[in-house]
Amino acid sequence: MKKVPNEASVILETLKSMKRRVVGMVVESTFNWYWLVDLLMGAGYKVHLANPPAIQKFSGLEHVDDVHDAFWSAEQLRLGVLPE
């Protein structure tokens, strides 16, 4: 996981090398999410807009931060239980 600035060109360049392996992306529907979803969908990515209040936190998680939240969102997407 890598933090990048909220700049379209930087985001797309960062994802470029992984594009063929990405089967889906999760974006939380929080403040100002729409431009990112539009950008990713326009670049050909399959985007899932997650509903944060509906996401159950996994009780076994020891840490609560962006990295662990991202892995949990990806796991929910993989299992087909991501609230969208």
Give your account of this protein's structure.
The chain is 38% helix and 10% strand. It is α+β, with helices and mostly antiparallel strands and 84 residues long. Strands 1-2 form a two-stranded parallel sheet. Helix 2 links the parallel strand 1 (25-28) and strand 2 (47-50). The two termini are 22 Å apart. The model has no long low-confidence stretch (mean pLDDT 84).
Principal-axis shape equals globular
Instruction: Tell me the strand percentage band.
Output: 5-15%
Number of helical elements: 3
Terminus-to-terminus distance: 22 Å
Secondary-structure-derived class: alpha+beta
Extended strand count: 2
Poorly predicted runs: none
Radius of gyration: 13 Å
Biggest sheet: strand arrangement: 1-2
Helix content: 25-40%
Provide the succession of SSEs. Answer: HEHEH
Sheet with most strands? 2 strands, parallel
The pLDDT mean sits at 84
Features:
single chain, alpha+beta, two-stranded parallel ribbon
Ordered list of secondary-structure elements with their pairings:
Elements: H1 8-16, E1 25-28, H2 34-42, E2 47-50, H3 66-79
Parallel strand pairs: 1-2
Produce a short descriptive summary:
This protein is 38% helix and 10% strand. The protein has 84 residues and is α+β, with helices and mostly antiparallel strands.
